[in-house]
Write a structure and sequence with these properties.
The chain has helices at residues 3-16, 40-52, 67-74, 76-93, 149-163, 179-195, 235-244, 248-265, 281-285, 289-296, 313-318, 320-332, 349-354, 374-389, 402-408, 427-431, 435-441; strands spanning 38-39, 57-64, 98-103, 106-111, 126-128, 131-133, 135-142, 170-173, 201-210, 216-227, 231-233, 274-278, 307-312, 336-342, 359-362, 393-396, 415-416. Helix content is 42%, strand content 21%. β16, α15 and β17 form a beta-alpha-beta unit. The protein contains 17 helices and 17 strands. It is an alpha/beta fold. The structure holds ligand C2E and calcium ion (2 copies). One calcium ion (CA) binds next to β14.
Length: 443
C-alpha cells in the first residue's frame, strides 16, 4: 500500500475516533478488507447514534460510473485498484469525515461540515493507472432532508442517481433533486426491457450544415422515446439506462434499420448527404454488432459510405485497445468514425494523434458562452489547430444564434449543427429543409 495512502487511511481511521462525533470504537470487524475503509455495519451504528443524539450532519453516497463494465472489460484487478484509488481520493477530499465502503463500489461519507463546495476542486475524471474513471455522488442532510437513517440512505441514493445524468465526476444535493425526474428514471428502468420493441421508440433528424456552401450536408439521427404514460422521455435519460441494462445494442440495431430504411426511401437525397449515428462503445464491443451490420447492408453496401458513427470521446479513448480491430473493420466497410462531445474527455495529445478517426464534433458546452468566453475561445482554437494538423473534419455542435456563428468564423470549420439552423425534427420535415433557408441564416 502506498505510504501516502496509508497515512490518509490512518487519518480516516483516526477521524472515526475524533471528538467531532461521539462514535463507537472501531474493531477490525468493522473495516473493509480491500480498502480498509469502515464497513456498512459501522456506518449503520454511526448513523443511528448521530440521529439518536440529534446531531446535524450530511451523508454522501458515492459510486464509480459504469463500475461493472470496468470489471468486465478491464478485469477485477483494475476494478480493485480503482476502489482503492477512490478511497484514497475520498479521504483526501474529506480528511475529517467518516468514510465507509458499504459493498461493491458503494462508498458513504458522514461529515458535519458543509462539504458540497469541495467538489469544485475535484477534476472531471480521476486517473488510476492511466485509466480514467468518474464518480457520482449524492448528498443528503440530517435533519433538513430526512428524519430516519433509512431515509438518509435512500435519499442519498436518489441524489446519487441524479448525479449520474452528468458526465464526469459530479455531485447532486438531495434538496435540489427533481423528484419527478427520478420517478421517470425508475419507470424507464422498469420498462426498458419490454419497451424497445414497441412503436414508441422513434427517431428525429437534425440537419448538419456545410460552412463552405451553406447547405444541408447531412443529418444526425437522434432517438426518441414517446411514452404513452410519460410523454417524451429524453435520450439522456434512457440511453445510459439501456447501456447499463444491456439493452443498448438492441436499440442501436433498431436505429440502423431505420437508417437503412431512410436512405432507401430518399435514395436520390443520400447520393449527396450522410447520416450521423450515435453508436455506443458497448455496441463496438459486442460480438454480434459487425455481423449484424454486414447482414443488414449486404445488398446495399453502397449505403455504408453514407454513414458516420459518432462515439463519445471518453468512451472511445478509454476503450480503444478493445475496439481497435472493430473500428478498422468498420472503416474498411466505408463507414466514417467521428469523435463526439470532443473536448470533454481530457484525452492526451499523444493518444489523439495515434488513433484513426475521420471527424471531431466540438462539444456544445464550448459554444454556449460564445462570444464572451475567452477561455472557450482558447480551447476551440487549440482544437482547431489540432484538427488542421491531423487533417480531420470538424463539426461544431450547439450553434444557437448568429453571434456564435460569427464568432466561429475565426476558424475554418467544416460544418455546424444547432438550433440556429434547425432543431431535430421528423424525417419528412428534415428532408424538406430548404437550402435557401439555411443560406439566409448565414446573412
Ligand atoms: P449528442 O450526440 O451530443 O446529440 C446532440 C444533442 O444536442 C441532441 O440532444 C440535440 O437535440 C441537442 N442539440 C442540437 N442542437 C442544439 C442546440 O443548438 N442547443 C442545444 N442546447 N442542444 C442542441 P438529444 O437528442 O436530447 O440527445 C442527447 C444525447 O443522447 C445525444 O447527445 C447522444 O449522446 C444521446 N443519443 C441520442 N440519440 C441516440 C441514439 O440513437 N443512440 C445513442 N447511443 N445515443 C443517442
Ligand atoms: Ca452525437
Ligand atoms: Ca455531441
Amino acid at each position: 500500500m502506498a505510504a501516502n495512502q496509508q497515512t490518509k487511511q490512518q487519518m480516516n481511521r483516526g477521524s472515526v475516533e475524533s471528538k467531532k462525533f461521539k462514535a463507537l470504537p472501531v474493531s477490525d470487524k468493522k473495516r473493509d478488507y480491500l480498502t480498509d475503509a469502515n464497513n456498512r455495519s459501522h456506518m449503520l451504528d454511526i448513523l443511528k447514534e448521530l440521529i439518536d443524539q440529534e446531531v446535524s450532519f450530511s451523508l454522501y453516497c458515492i459510486d464509480v460510473d459504469s463500475f461493472c463494465s470496468i470489471n468486465r472489460r478491464k478485469g477485477f484487478r483494475l476494478g480493485d485498484l480503482v476502489l482503492i484509488d477512490l478511497y484514497t481520493n475520498i479521504c483526501q477530499y474529506f480528511p475529517t469525515a467518516f468514510v465507509f465502503r458499504s459493498h461493491g463500489d458503494h462508498f458513504y461519507v458522514i461529515t458535519k461540515e458543509d462539504a458540497s463546495n469541495k467538489f469544485d476542486r475535484v477534476p472531471t475524471f480521476f486517473d488510476c493507472q492511466s485509466y480514467k474513471y468518474s464518480i457520482s455522488c449524492g448528498m443528503v442532510r440530517y435533519p433538513d432532508d430526512a428524519s430516519t437513517w433509512e431515509e438518509m440512505i435512500h435519499y442519498s441514493e436518489i441524489a446519487k442517481k441524479d448525479a449520474k445524468k452528468i458526465k464526469g465526476n459530479s455531485v447532486s444535493l438531495y434538496q435540489n433533486v427533481d423528484v419527478e425526474m427520478n420517478v421517470l428514471v425508475d419507470y424507464v428502468e422498469q420498462t426498458i426491457h419490454s419497451s424497445t420493441d414497441e412503436k414508441w421508440i422513434t427517431f428525429a433528424y437534425q440537419p448538419i450544415v456545410s460552412v463552405n456552401n451553406k447547405r444541408v450536408e447531412g443529418y444526425e439521427v437522434l432517438m426518441r422515446w414517446n411514452d404513452p404514460l410519460h410523454g417524451s422521455i429524453p435520450p439522456d435519460v434512457f440511453i445510459p439506462i439501456a447501456e447499463r441494462d444491456g439493452m443498448i445494442t438492441q436499440l442501436s440495431k433498431k436505429l440502423l434499420c431505420e437508417c437503412k430504411q431512410t436512405m432507401l426511401c430518399f435514395k436520390k437525397h443520400f447520393e449527396t448527404h450522410y447520416l450521423a449515428v450515435n453508436i455506443s462503445v458497448l455496441d463496438l464491443m459486442s460480438e454480434e454488432f459487425i455481423p449484424f451490420l454486414r447482414e443488414l447492408f449486404k445488398e446495399n453496401e453502397n449505403l455504408l459510405e453514407k454513414l458516420e458513427f459518432e462515439v463519445t470521446e471518453t468512451y472511445y479513448f478509454n476503450n480503444f485497445d478493445m475496439i481497435e480491430k472493430k473500428i478498422e473493420l468498420i472503416q474498411e466497410m466505408g463507414i466514417k468514425i467521428s469523435i463526439d462531445d470532443f473536448g470533454t474527455g481530457f484525452s492526451s495529445f499523444e493518444k489523439l494523434v495515434n488513433l484513426k478517426f475521420d471527424r471531431i464534433k466540438i462539444d456544445q458546452s464550448f459554444i454556449r458562452h460564445l462570444p464572451h468566453s475567452e477561455k472557450d475561445l482558447l480551447i476551440i482554437n487549440a482544437i482547431a489547430s489540432l484538427a488542421k494538423g491531423m487533417k480531420l473534419k470538424v463539426t461544431v455542435e450547439g450553434v444557437e444564434n448568429y453571434r456564435q456563428q460569427e464568432c466561429l468564423k475565426l476558424f475554418c470549420f467544416d460544418a455546424y449543427q444547432g438550433y440556429h439552423y434547425a432543431k431535430p425534427m421528423f424525417l419528412e420535415a428534415a428532408m424538406a429543409v430548404f437550402d435557401e433557408d439555411i443560406k439566409r441564416k448565414f446573412q
